[in-house]
Structures are given as structure tokens and as C-alpha cells.
Write a structure and sequence with these properties.
heterodimer; A: mainly alpha; 76% helix; B: alpha/beta; Rossmann fold; Alpha-Beta Plaits; 2 domains; 4-stranded antiparallel beta sheet; 12 helices; 39% helix
């Protein structure tokens, strides 16, 4: 089964690498996200504009106080950009994962799926190969966004190290595994890409906003909080922040990290299992 | 020995009975043709035999294994060259073959040799490292055929192997199919609606319409079944009707004279023709023109399926796929 998944994953990755526009979009998209969204919502910047006619020392003083206030709201992060960039990594995973089902739709349309279905391979490996390639793509884009975020001014804690970085990727790997499986399971019987787009468009924004990726949960109304608290993206964002803010003064919040990992592992295991089970029943002709 | 055996095989889609209690057997090593109009149930039957669909009712054994219970065993013993072009355009021919080999668990070193061999068979070895996007329709179909052979299947299913191809490519594909049967003893199950293709290749054919088998037999038997050969003959002497005299000759079944031409229905046309000419010469008459008309499979086909056009309920997806296939095939 591993060799089947491997062979099919290689196919997906080859197809992806050979489409230069896809790789280009993949680099340009997060730049736009971080640049426009991250900087435009940077509240520190917003406040500074009306105060610009004051002497610079006072503006700076107000800026510092404001940043501290914001910092207490955003849980220790000094600026919104760092807060958002950390959450954006999970959003990037969401956006790459939601297309995992799309290639099943295309393979079905072009008849390639039939070729796989007459081959003596487990149906689960067809789905797992799609999931694996979606995870690879997602993590690749995360690596890009992360480096771009650093260039744009993400401020990591002073003790942030390679192990923390691995922790970030491990968490996002689990999120990607779960979300890719979830989206494949959801759209496995869909035959047209229009219908597929409708389904993922319905889900992507609610999933993004009803999470702690862009705003802290405790600033949300109660009903939204209850959704955000079961959204795996909240846990992944929180996990990533816990690692990024690793500073020598505070240290790692181990219990927070452990809780987030537990939730993400459960999410990934349950949904990949559902994906494989549905593949056996849902992947058929017609 | 029967290598494919179906018993009351049935597939129902909603209200439509696509395949209706079909029972037949395919012998090992033969080329078996499945003929029928669009929507007659050909592809649905192939889909069931290749485990892509489960039958609603009835059962079938392929290479000794049940198509539902032992689906994976069936899959490892058969090859399918589908109607759709399913090779991946973004990969090279070689990469497509390698992927196929891995899906059929052919070890890498064995796969390399076999790929070389089957690519040579379909004459694609020079194009192997080019992306499939650059292939012509005929090349794609040949690659598709090569993929179906990579694991040395016992049975090869060909669904409309020459649809939309030019005459040259079609002839070449016919040659491959014959070679596979003769050199490897492979059993081939093919669907087509080109009658001359069925006639040239198939040992036996089944004509299916409205989900039922209307006729099954050797092409010659089927042709004989609808009336046999006709000799059309004209004499220099048109003053008298010689029908009665001709009717008494051996092999002759029936004679009709129509505006100075005799239409003579005979049993074995090739043997009857010299006999009849000799008989006429013995009557001191001279033949001005003569021709032997043998029934074609087209006639057999129309006899069993009728002449009405089929306005099947299609769906958008199917029509689009067909158009896309034809477009790709013509590239």
C-alpha cells in the first residue's frame, strides 16, 4: 500500500511542479495576504496617523502604551502582525487542503480515476495519495509564508529555536492531514468542479473567521466562541503561537502545547480514517 | 475453457435497465466482440466485468474469480483500455508507464524491461520521454494500449479501441490486437461499432441491444444466418427467362429475374459460382456480367438491431466527455 501511495503522490507532485504558474501563485498569494491583510489591519499603524502632528517622542510613547494594550489582548504578542502571521500559517493550510478534493473531481472527469479503480490497489491509497500531496504542498507553502513573514517583520520570542520550528511544522502537518482528509471525504461523490467550488467556498471563510487565526477567541461574541472552540484551526494557530513566542523569560507553555497537540492528533487520525473508509465506498464509477 | 462467464448479469440505473439478464461465455484465447448501438449496454457490461461497477443482479466470473467477491484478484489478471483517453497529459509516456507498472505491483527492474518491450510493440519508444500533451490522438491510444499490457494480463478489455482514429492508426491497432492473440494467446474482449473491425478481428461476436443479447456466434455463422450469398448474373441472350433452368443447378436456393439480371440465392457462394457458370455454358449461353455478393455484418447488425435511430437520454457530462475525447483523439 505504501508503494501505491508513493507512486500516486509522485504523480501529483510532478504535475504540480511542472505548472510554473501554480508555483508562482503559491509564492505570490501569501505575499498578498501578509502584505495587504496583515499590514492594513495593523492597529498600531492606524493609531499613529491622527497623532502625527504631535512631537515624535509623545507619539512614540503613545505607540508603546498602545502596543502593550494590544499585547495584553493578543496574549503576549507585541503586535498584531506577528499574531496574524502565526494564524495565517494555519489559514494557508486551510486554503491548500480545501483543494485536495478537486483533483479527485478532475481525475473522475478525465477518466484517470477509472484507471486507478481497475488497478488492484486499495481504494484508500488513492485517497491517501491525494492527502499526502496536499500535505506536501501545504507545508511547502507554509515554509514560504513563514520566511516571508519574517522578512515583513514577524517578531519571534528570543528563545525560538529549531525544535520550536519543528513543532510548528508538526502541528501544521496534523492540521493539513485532517483538513485534506475532511475535504476529500466531503466532496468524494461530487462530479463537477462547479459544485466542488460551491462547497469549499461555503466553508472556507467561516472556517477561517470562526477561529483564533486572525482574532483572539475571547474578543468574539459567545456563539462564535463556541464554534471557534471546536475549530481545529484555532488549536493549530494557538500551537504555532505558543512555539513562536518562546522566550527565555517565560519559557514554553508545555501544557498549552500538549493540549493543542492532543486535539490536532485526534482530528488528523479521525478524519484520515473517515477519508479511507469513505474511499472504499465512495470511490466508484458513476 | 470459458475464461469469462456471466449468468443473468443485470444492471439497472433508476428506471433504465442497461443490461438485462445477460448470460454468455468467452473462451480462453479468443477475440470476443461486443457489438451494439450507442446505449445498448456494451460499456456497462465492460464496467461490470472489469469491476468498475457492481451488477444489480446476476453474477460473472472472470479468470475464475467472482467480479464482486474477488474484485482485486480479477483486477490483477485483467487489463482495460478504456474508451476515454486516460493517460496523464502532464507526464511523459515513460512516467505514465512507470506509474501503471507500480499500480500493478510490477517490480521496478522487471518493469523497465517490459516497458521497453511494450513500447516497442506500439512503436512509441522514440516518444517515450516526451510529455503526453505533445502526442497525437493515435499515439495516445497506443500508449493506452501499452499501459493495458504492462502486467501481462490474461484478459484484455478493449472498449472501442479505434474510436475517432484515422484509417492508418486503426489498421495498426488491428495488427497489434491480432499479434497479442497469436503470440501471447491473450483473450481479448472488445466492444466496437465498426462492423468491418468486428468482422476482421473477432472469432465470435455478440450483438447486444436494449440490454439483451440478440445474436451470438462466429461472424460467418451470423452472416449465413440472414440468408447467405447472392450471385447477380446477366446473359447475352435476353430473349427468354432461364430462371427455371438455373434453379435446378446445384447449390442454388432461389432465383429471381429482375430486368434482365438474375438474382441467384446460393449456399456457399465461392463454390456455387463456377458450377453455375459451367452449367450456363453447357446450355450454350454466354454470361455477360457476374458478381458474387456476400452478406456483410452491417446487414446482420441491422437485421438484429433495426434501423431506428437511438435517441438516448444522455447526460451533459457524458456528452462533454465524448466531445473531449474526439477532440483529443484528433489532435
Amino acid at each position: 500500500m505504501i508503494s501505491e501511495i508513493w507512486a500516486l503522490t509522485i504523480r501529483e507532485v510532478k504535475k504540480w511542479i511542472r505548472e510554473p504558474i501554480l508555483v508562482f501563485m503559491m509564492i505570490i498569494q501569501p505575499v498578498i495576504w501578509l502584505g495587504l491583510f496583515g499590514q492594513a489591519f495593523n492597529l498600531t499603524g492606524l493609531v499613529q496617523i491622527p497623532l502625527s502632528n504631535l512631537p515624535p517622542e509623545i507619539t512614540q510613547q503613545i505607540g508603546v502604551i498602545f502596543n502593550q494594550t494590544i499585547g495584553s489582548i493578543f496574549g503576549g504578542t507585541l503586535d498584531y502582525f506577528t499574531y496574524m502571521a502565526a494564524g495565517m500559517l494555519s489559514v494557508v493550510i486551510l486554503f491548500t487542503s480545501m483543494f485536495s478534493g478537486m483533483s479527485v473531481v478532475w481525475d473522475r472527469r478525465f477518466g484517470f480515476l477509472n484507471k486507478l479503480l481497475v488497478a488492484p490497489i486499495a481504494r484508500g491509497s488513492i485517497v491517501m495519495a491525494k492527502v499526502t500531496s496536499s500535505v506536501i504542498r501545504g507545508l511547502f507553502q507554509v515554509a514560504l509564508v513563514f520566511s516571508i513573514a519574517f522578512a515583513f517583520g514577524l517578531k519571534a520570542g528570543n528563545a525560538f529555536n529549531v525544535l520550536d520550528l519543528l513543532g510548528v511544522f508538526a502541528g501544521l502537518f496534523l492540521l493539513s492531514l485532517g483538513l485534506s482528509s475532511f475535504f476529500i471525504a466531503l466532496t468524494i461523490r461530487i462530479k463537477s468542479w462547479e459544485a466542488h467550488m460551491a462547497v469549499i467556498n461555503l466553508l472556507n471563510l467561516p472556517l477561517m473567521f470562526a477561529s483564533s487565526a486572525l482574532f483572539p477567541i475571547n474578543m468574539m461574541p459567545d456563539w462564535l466562541q463556541s464554534i471557534a472552540k471546536v475549530n481545529p484551526i484555532s488549536y493549530a494557530s494557538d500551537l504555532v503561537r505558543a512555539f513562536i513566542l518562546h522566550s527565555s523569560s517565560v519559557g514554553l507553555d508545555v501544557s498549552r502545547i500538549a493540549l493543542n497537540f492532543e486535539v490536532l492528533i485526534a482530528f488528523a487520525v479521525i478524519f484520515s480514517f473517515i477519508g479511507i473508509v469513505l474511499a472504499e465506498r465512495g470511490l466508484r464509477k458513476g | 475453457m470459458a475464461i469469462i462467464e456471466t449468468k443473468d448479469l443485470t444492471k439497472v440505473f433508476g428506471k433504465l435497465i442497461a443490461v438485462d439478464h445477460v448470460s454468455f461465455a468467452v473462451e480462453e484465447g479468443e477475440i470476443f466482440g461486443f457489438l451494439g448501438p450507442n446505449g445498448a449496454g456494451k460499456t456497462t457490461t465492460i464496467n461490470m466485468l472489469t469491476t468498475l461497477m457492481n451488477p444489480t443482479e446476476g453474477s460473472a466470473k472472470v479468470a475464475g474469480f467472482d467480479i464482486v467477491k474477488d474484485a482485486n484478484k480479477v483486477r490483477s489478471l485483467i487489463g482495460l483500455v478504456p474508451q476515454d483517453l486516460t493517460v496523464d497529459e502532464d507526464l511523459t509516456g515513460m512516467e505514465n508507464m512507470m506509474l501503471q507498472a507500480m499500480l500493478y505491483h510490477v517490480p521496478k527492474d522487471v518493469a523497465k524491461k517490459r516497458i521497453e518491450e511494450v513500447l516497442r510493440l506500439v512503436e512509441l519508444e522514440d516518444a517515450a520521454n516526451r510529455k503526453v500533451e505533445t502526442y497525437s490522438g493515435g499515439m495516445r491510444k497506443r500508449l493506452e494500449l501499452a499501459e493495458g499490457l504492462i502486467h501481462y494480463p490474461k484478459i484484455l478489455f478493449l472498449d472501442e479501441p479505434t474510436l475517432g482514429l484515422d484509417v492508418q492508426t486503426r489498421t495498426v491497432i488491428w495488427d497489434y490486437i491480432k499479434k497479442l492473440k497469436e503470440e501471447r494467446g491473450m483473450t481479448i474482449f472488445m466492444t466496437t461499432h465498426y462492423m468491418e473491425e468486428a468482422d476482421a478481428l473477432c472469432n465470435r461476436i455478440a450483438i447486444i441491444d436494449y440490454g439483451k443479447i440478440r445474436a451470438l456466434g462466429k461472424p460467418k455463422e451470423l452472416k449465413d444466418g440472414i440468408g447467405g450469398d447472392v450471385i447477380e448474373l446477366a446473359l447475352f441472350d435476353n430473349s427468354k427467362d432461364f430462371s427455371e433452368a438455373i434453379a435446378k443447378m446445384p447449390y442454388v436456393i432461389d432465383v429471381k429475374r429482375k430486368s434482365e439480371t438474375y438474382k441467384i440465392k446460393v449456399a456457399k457462394g465461392e463454390e456455387a459460382l463456377p458450377n453455375i457458370i459451367e452449367g450456363i455454358l453447357k446450355m450454350n449461353l454466354k454470361v455477360s456480367t457476374v458478381s458474387l455478393i456476400k452478406p456483410t455484418l452491417d446487414q446482420v447488425y441491422l437485421e438484429y438491431t433495426g434501423r431506428s435511430l437511438r435517441e438516448n437520454e444522455g447526460n451533459r457530462e457524458e456528452v462533454m466527455r465524448m466531445m473531449r475525447n474526439i477532440r483529443r483523439a484528433r489532435q
